[in-house]
Specification:
Strands 1, 2, 5, 6, 7, 8, 9, 10, 11 and 12 form a 10-stranded mixed beta sheet that branches. It contains 6 helices and 14 strands. The radius of gyration is 18 Å and the shape is globular. By secondary structure, the protein is α/β, with parallel strands linked by helices. The protein starts with a strand and ends with a helix. Helices cover 31% and strands 30% of the residues. The chain has a single domain, classed as 3-Layer(aba) Sandwich (Rossmann fold). α1 runs antiparallel to α2 and α2 crosses α3. The chain binds 1-O-pyrophosphono-5-O-phosphono-alpha-D-ribofuranose (PRP) and uracil.
């Protein structure tokens, strides 16, 4: 895993399993069932990397042979924050590795004409300021939705945030890193560019519609 040479806070995970599964996900012929499964599998593999700096402590445990100070995760359980709708498709991937995490929700949609994000829902645990947040959305396109979601989260005094997406566009990463230089981004791919409609190319199409079969 390496930092991207063009963007210091971007980690593009080039693991062969992630790249192979992402190629399957991108195919237009991949059906909704397979799409959902692949989103979960890729997310799980990204989460393994995105959680590498979680704080650790030790606790005394007893093996069949002796008692010793064993490493365990420290602090309160993290919060997974999917950006609705498509972010919901990534939650199971997180829960498979961290079953006890809390799940917040932010509802945002991108106006198809202006591409501006609109917020319609926000719910997080009461003691969220004590927790690490993992915000997830399959697509970072213009960056408007992710930037806005993180603005909302930061306005609640939360400052430990990581963003996880499957595919990012350079235009969105630039906007994101200029606005939130303290938030690392983990992605399976930095794609070439946005097209004239704000879609990522080569991309995978509309993640929400493909996950939920709405088009
Ligand atoms: C998609 C995607 C992101 C957003 C990315 O959601 O899941 O949230 O677009 O685009 P941006 O970086 O240009 O903001 P959409 O608004 O289509 O809503 P949906 O998840 O409900 O389909
Ligand atoms: N949202 C998507 O779902 N796909 C894109 O390519 C851009 C925004």
């Amino acid at each position: 895993m390496v930092r991207h040479p063009d963007f210091e806070q971007l980690f593009e995970i080039k693991h062969p399993l992630i790249q192979h599964k992402l190629s399957l996900l991108r195919k237009a012929v991949t059906n909704t069932k397979s799409f959902k499964e692949l989103v979960n599998e890729i997310t799980l593999l990204l989460v393994y990397e995105a959680t590498k700096d979680l704080p650790m402590t030790t606790e005394s445990i007893t093996t069949p042979l002796e008692t010793f100070e064993a490493p365990v995760l420290d602090g309160k359980k993290p919060v997974i924050m999917p950006i609705l709708r498509a972010g919901i498709g990534m939650v199971d991937g997180f829960l498979k590795l961290m079953p006890g995490v809390r799940v917040g929700h932010i509802g945002l949609y991108r106006d198809e004409e202006t591409l501006e994000p609109h917020t319609y829902f926000f719910k997080i645990p009461e003691d969220s300021h004590k927790r690490q947040f993992f915000v997830c959305d399959p697509m970072l396109a213009t960056g408007g939705s992710a930037v806005d979601a993180i603005n909302h989260i930061k306005s609640r005094n939360i400052n430990k945030i990581t963003f996880v997406c499957l595919v990012a566009a350079p235009e969105g990463v630039k906007k994101f890193t200029e606005t939130h230089p303290d938030v690392p981004i983990y992605t399976a791919s930095l794609d070439r560019q946005l097209n004239e409609k704000g879609y990522i190319v080569p991309g995978l199409g509309d993640a929400g519609d493909r996950l939920f079969g709405t088009k």
